[in-house]
Specification:
The complex is a heterotrimer of chains A (159), B (762) and C (288). Chain A has 159 residues and is α+β, with helices and mostly antiparallel strands. Chain A has helices at 25-32, 88-96, 105-118, 124-130, 142-150, and strands at 2-10, 13-19, 51-54, 57-60, 73-75. By secondary structure, chain B is α+β, with helices and mostly antiparallel strands. Chain B is globular and about 80 Å long. The model of chain B has no long low-confidence stretch (mean pLDDT 97). Chain C has 288 residues and is α+β, with helices and mostly antiparallel strands. In chain C, a hairpin with a 1-residue loop joins strand 4 (58-61) and strand 5. Chain C is globular, with a radius of gyration of 19 Å. The termini of chain C are far apart. Classes of the chains: A alpha+beta (159), B alpha+beta (762), C alpha+beta (288). Chains in contact: A-B, A-C, B-C. Chain B binds chain C through residues 631-635, 672-673, 684-685, 689-690, 692, 694-695, 697-698, 751-753, 756-757, 760, and chain C through 181, 183-189, 257-260, 262-263, 266-267, 270-271, 273-274.
Chain lengths: 159, 762, 288
């Protein structure tokens, strides 16, 4: 068990990382922090259900070491709905039918949130490529892509 | 403003998009222990050594169990074959041999590694050797004769040795018609397994207290899982309670028990709650996948090109245990003619035991390879006759009054003709064909599908606050059947919004029987039951409101959360007031609707051994695919996919679209990307790296039209929606690829290697 | 298992000198964590170098040097690579999906030395040299083929750290191209990968040819016989096809979970022809 020197910021809150060297970020989030919104689908970095943002970049938390997040910023699905409101992206997904069983949804929200910060108006091809690391078995993707393409950026680019 | 047909947001969407829904894998109980299974590393053999003493002594371990500890029972969905643990012999790679329960998952896994297991490996039986029915081939179940059907000995079905089920139709005169045929066309299609690959792996959390077992799990059919647990444990089904949680995808793979019986058993053994969960490889290896099958089809044609007789032989891989597959062996008899007028048809459907994971239900059971075989065969016949592929189909399409092989009369088969006509409007056949490039192809096909008739129940109660509760074990496996379908139907009746409808989580202690989210049945069956119950509750509420408003109950309407006199806006009371008044004057207001589709007439003499004899509440469909093959790599891209789907009545267009887009995506996955190959009775693909699920870049946006021919029994006429979209995908994509390469596709999935080979031959 | 992180190169080298074979270098960790979780690897200490300063940039000093910690995402977007070494940017953009590219590094990809490593063929055709540092012996440079010596086998001493890769310059009339064959449109481990670098003379005749492939042998390699046979050609498909056969002769396609030997045998010459044709068009195209 290693207690990290630097803390990690998780959804804006400073947290001390206490985990063993082989503990993944996913395990740390779910088991140590009780943040169950990030899901385990495969443990091999294929399905993307475990996607979180570290320093704004999406990664597969199931294959990323928890201790590597020291001094950095982690965002999970729980941090996306600020003050209880859905983000504009979340609302668009819901309205467009982009949610069926929902198990993949938090992972998609994280990847798409990063995409929209980078490019507020991606076209369908760009969206499809950006979500290559996220598998949905229910929707066949069209309604997810349309939700993002149709969601106009607010003034200032905030989503 | 009616909610029926409205694109209402599903009532669980917000929780899901926030990551707040509690799925089976998220469910925790304080003090729960963690189980881990030792699974057979080989497909077949005799256990010669199983020493758990070292494991039992390891840190954190509470219990280790094997067949030595199991109840003396056999369980099964149709035939009772299976023991809790592999007993004496192992029959498939992944079969549970032992379980360890410990304080932490890591401790349980470490103890598993310390179990001393030796197996004298034997050659396994695969589909090819089972089909040969050579007396020298070992028996997967040497004791097969002793197995009892769940429904009782008089309900046994034809089976022998490695043939788990055989269903046949042998009408007279078939051979004579072949002998006099002007032309005989013959085709074959082989289809690999398909893994449901829901993103949420299977799990179970079980408790044992006061002589009863409670199991928390995310399954499609809680009552079936309850019954299976009870069978394995040797208790009454009412001694088991299954409580359902949000399901992270299922597609048929979560209809039967998986981890639940062992979890329940270990809860009793340890006196503590016990959790079991599959890792992805375990889940893939042991999931009841869509069976691999071999279909051989031949048709006798007369001089005018009519299909005067047919023979279809379908051999399906059961895997090591039968589960639901025995019933599903009926499907070839229903689909052998496809949607076309074909003369007397001989069908032999055989389900074979092999030393592989038991197969089971996956969306559109049997349809994918049967329609692929039949529709490839139709292209083949058209080509042999020199007739346009679409015209040939239209000339021989089923019409009203035609019958299926089982004698079932189709009184609305003309919907098929309409479906092809509507398809022609959005994708004109001549135009699509004329604009093909040198590496493009187009495929077309039609299908019919059932809406599973099995029973469901919903109790509707009027709450004092004006909301409505629906108590049911109907499950929403992601399709929206509950959070859109049932919700909208009930909300529409009461004139309230969808968020005023509370639907209980499935609980076998509390609700009436529900036959699970399978066969596209939930909106149709439980929506109907819920609507019936709602009408009765409204009647009771109307009586109360009539008193309050001094009006006639028949003059009342339920609108915008109020009950009032039609045409008299001043004369209203809130639904809450009515419900409250009713509760305190006549008693709490509730009603229960129960529904199961009435039996469909058919000819019982049509077949032998047919366990699932009819196709109730049929829907009719036509699909088209345009593909392009890459001459450098052999890859196939589906460039255009068009669906015309008969739904009876659209309850939610967003939901219907989701089923069509999602179903076609799974069909494309099965046909082009997913592969679950078997070699020496083991799967070659074992992770999501090699079991390739299609990505957003792989799937086109599906164009679709819905046809609404209301079913008289369905709620607002709704019929099943979820499965038909997948049924024709292999068929039309295979037809399109054959068209592009000039070589017939004979195998699903279609590999780039197959395509390059075909192009080399061109 | 211990976890030691650092953002200083000297500290990293000191740790490696101290721990030797007990250390496992961890950058993005995408392959590593899976191996640890599966019990395939059990190192004494994870030396986390993902944030080490100074070895993640792309710099120019005679030769273009790509820092070992440059991520696939950075490689796919960097103007210098896009301009002169597009096959490197392109192959980086094909490694997994965004989540993999955001943390996966060129150093990790090379040191993992998978037979299917996407970046290896483009690096090989650009004559990449591996820059290796250690506390006790300073820096050394080794040609890539002498560094990746076998399947998942690199010539790295336990106290050494790969710090970067330097590339041959690209002049007028030189271009590169890469194509990867997979099943799906993304997230694929290469079934075969072919990188080509061609230089043409003023008559648009090939004067230098470099061809590298992955997934048809234990190690990605330069196909020297095919390279020689391309010299002196213009884009004549019969002769290119013949070169493709030479490439096949030098390859050892096998059956594995991703594809059959037969498919690899069929597709390799076709992809080679397609990549050579594309590369030739780029090399002879409008002045760069």
């Amino acid at each position: 068990m290693t207690v990290a020197e630097d803390s990690v910021s998780v959804n804006g809150r400073s947290v001390t990382v206490r985990s063993s060297a082989g503990t993944t970020l996913l395990e740390f989030l779910r088991e140590s922090l009780g943040l169950l919104g990030t899901k385990e689908g495969c443990s091999e970095g294929e399905c993307g259900a475990c996607t979180v943002l570290v320093d704004g970049q999406p990664l597969h938390s199931c294959i990323y070491p928890a201790l590597a997040t020291q001094g950095r910023t982690v965002e999970t699905i729980e941090g996306i709905s600020k003050g209880g409101d859905l983000s504009s992206l979340q609302a668009a997904l819901v309205a467009a039918g982009g949610v069926q069983c929902g198990f993949c949804t938090p992972g998609f929200v994280m990847t798409l949130t990063a995409l929209l910060r980078d490019d507020p108006s991606p076209d369908p091809d760009q969206i499809a490529r950006a979500i290559s690391g996220n598998i949905c078995r229910c929707t066949g993707y069209a309604q997810i892509v349309e939700a993002v393409a149709a969601d106009p950026p607010r003034p200032g680019g905030a989503r | 403003m009616s909610l029926i047909g409205a694109p209402v947001i599903r009532t669980d969407a917000v929780a899901k998009v926030r990551g707040e829904s509690i799925y089976g894998v998220d469910y925790v109980v304080p003090g729960m222990l963690h189980g881990c299974l030792l699974r057979s590393p080989v497909p077949a053999g005799m256990i010669t050594r199983l020493d758990t003493s070292a494991a039992a002594a390891m840190p954190g371990v509470h219990a280790v169990c094997t067949s030595a500890d199991q109840p003396d029972t056999r369980a099964g969905w149709v035939l009772c074959e299976q023991r809790m643990f592999a007993t004496g012999r192992v029959r498939y790679e992944g079969e549970p041999v032992a379980v360890v329960v410990a304080d932490s998952p890591k401790q349980a896994a470490a103890a598993i590694a310390a179990i001393d297991l030796e197996i004298d490996e034997a050659p396994g039986v695969d589909l090819a050797s089972a089909m040969a029915e050579d007396p020298e081939t070992p028996l997967v179940h040497p004791e097969w004769k002793s197995y009892q059907p769940v429904a009782g000995p008089e309900m046994d079905h034809p089976r022998r040795r490695n043939v788990a089920a055989e269903m046949t139709s042998e009408p007279e005169g078939v051979e004579a018609l072949f002998a006099e045929a002007a032309l005989v066309v013959e085709d074959q299609l082989v289809s690999d397994r398909q893994y449901q690959a829901y993103i949420e792996p299977k799990s179970a959390v079980a408790l044992f207290a006061e002589g009863r077992y409670t199991v928390h799990t995310a399954v499609q059919y809680p009552f079936n899982v309850r019954d299976r647990i009870a069978q394995f444990l040797g208790v009454r089904s009412s001694d088991v309670r299954v409580i359902g949680h949000t399901i992270g995808g299922a597609f048929g793979g979560k209809l039967d028990a998986a981890l639940e019986p062992i979890a329940a058993f270990m809860a009793q053994q340890t006196g503590r709650p016990v959790r079991l969960v599959n890792n992805r490889t375990e889940d893939l290896l042991t999931c009841p996948s869509r069976e691999n099958a071999v279909v051989r089809i031949r048709t006798a044609l007369d001089a005018e090109g009519n299909m005067i007789a047919r023979e279809l032989l379908c051999d399906m891989d059961n895997g090591a245990y039968s589960a639901e597959s025995i019933w599903l062996a009926s499907i070839p008899l229903h689909l052998a003619k496809g949607v076309y007028q074909v003369g007397p048809t001989r069908v032999v459907s055989r389900l074979h035991y092999t030393n592989t994971a038991p197969t089971g239900a996956f969306r559109g059971v049997g349809s994918t390879y049967l329609y692929a075989a039949v529709e490839r065969h139709m292209d083949s016949i058209a080509e042999a006759l020199g007739i346009d592929r679409r015209n040939y189909r239209l000339d021989h399409l089923l019409v009203d009054g035609d019958t299926l092989l089982n004698g079932q009369v189709l009184d609305n088969a003309s919907i098929l003709g309409e479906a092809f006509d509507r398809l022609e409007e959005i994708a004109p056949w001549a135009e699509v064909n004329a604009s093909k490039g040198p590496y493009q192809g187009v495929g077309i096909g039609g299908c019919l599908w059932l809406t599973n008739p099995m029973p469901g129940q919903a109790t509707v109660k009027a709450n004092e606050d004006g909301t409505i509760s629906v108590i049911t074990s109907a499950t929403d496996n992601g399709s929206g059947a509950v959070t859109m379908g049932i919700t909208q139907i009930v909300a529409d009746e009461f004139g309230v919004g969808p968020t005023d409808i509370h639907i209980t989580a499935p609980d076998t202690d509390v609700t009436g029987y529900d036959a699970g989210s399978q066969g596209s049945r939930t909106t149709h069956i439980v929506g109907r039951a819920a609507r019936d119950a709602s009408l009765e509750v409204k009647r009771q509420l109307a009586d109360v409101a009539a008193e309050m408003l001094e009006a006639n109950p028949t003059d009342l309407e339920f609108i915008n959360g109020t009950v009032g006199v039609v045409g008299a806006p001043g004369s209203r009371v809130s639904l809450a007031e009515v419900a409250t008044a009713g509760t305190w004057t006549v008693g709490p207001i509730a009603a229960t609707g129960s529904y199961t589709t009435p039996p469909v007439e058919f000819d019982p003499g049509c077949a032998n051994g047919l366990l699932f004899p009819t196709m109730p509440t049929l829907t009719y469909h036509a699909h088209m695919a345009v593909v392009e093959v890459d001459p450098v790599t052999g890859k196939v891209t589906v460039q255009r996919y068009v669906v015309v789907q008969d739904v009876g009545r659209v309850i939610n267009p967003t939901g219907v679209r989701g089923q069509i887009q999602g179903g076609v995506a799974q069909g494309i996955g099965h046909t082009l990307y997913e592969s679950l190959r078997i070699k020496d009775c083991r799967y070659l693909e074992r992770t999501l790296e090699t079991y390739r699920l299609p990505l957003a870049v792989d799937i086109p946006t599906v164009e679709f039209i819905t046809l609404e021919h209301p079913d008289p029994e369905g709620p607002h006429g709704a019929k099943g929606v979820g499965e038909p979209p997948i049924a024709l995908v292999s068929a039309v994509v295979a037809n399109a690829v054959s068209d592009a390469t000039g070589s017939p596709v004979e195998r699903i999935p279609i590999t780039p290697e197959d395509v390059l080979e075909a192009l080399d031959r061109r | 298992m211990d976890f030691r992180r650092t953002d200083d190169i000297e500290e990293a080298l000191a740790s490696l000198a101290e721990l030797g074979p007990d250390a496992q270098i961890l950058a993005g960790g995408t392959d590593l964590m899976m191996q640890i979780q599966r019990g395939e690897l059990d190192p004494g200490t994870l030396v986390h170098i993902e944030r080490v300063d100074g070895i993640g940039e792309i710099t120019e000093n005679g030769r273009l040097t790509v820092g070992a910690l440059a991520t696939h995402l950075e490689l796919s977007r960097h103007p210098a690579l896009l301009d002169r070494y597009p096959s490197i940017s392109y192959s980086a953009s094909l490694v997994g999906g965004w989540q993999t590219q955001a943390v996966g590094t060129i150093g990790g990809n090379v040191c993992n030395a998978s037979p299917a490593a996407d970046l290896l063929p483009p690096l090989l055709v650009h004559g990449a040299r591996v820059l290796v540092a250690s506390q006790d012996r300073g820096e050394r440079e080794v040609p890539l083929p002498d560094f990746v010596v076998g399947r998942r086998n690199i010539a790295r001493e336990p106290d050494e750290l790969v710090t970067g890769f330097s590339l041959d310059p690209v002049e007028e009339g030189t271009a590169d191209s890469y194509r990867k064959v997979g099943r799906r449109g993304a997230m694929e481990v290469a079934i075969v990968g072919v990188a080509v670098r061609l230089s043409v003379d003023s008559e648009a005749t090939i004067k230098e040819a470099r061809v590298a492939v992955c997934s048809v042998g234990p190690v990605p390699f330069r196909a020297t016989a095919a390279e020689e046979s391309l010299i002196g050609l213009t884009a004549d498909s019969d002769e290119i096809a013949a070169a493709g056969q030479l490439l096949l002769e030098q390859s050892q396609p096998i059956d594995d979970a991703r594809a059959t030997a037969r498919y690899r045998t069929m597709v390799l010459p076709r992809v080679f022809e397609s990549v050579v044709t594309d590369c030739y068009l780029r090399a002879t195209g409008p002045s760069r």
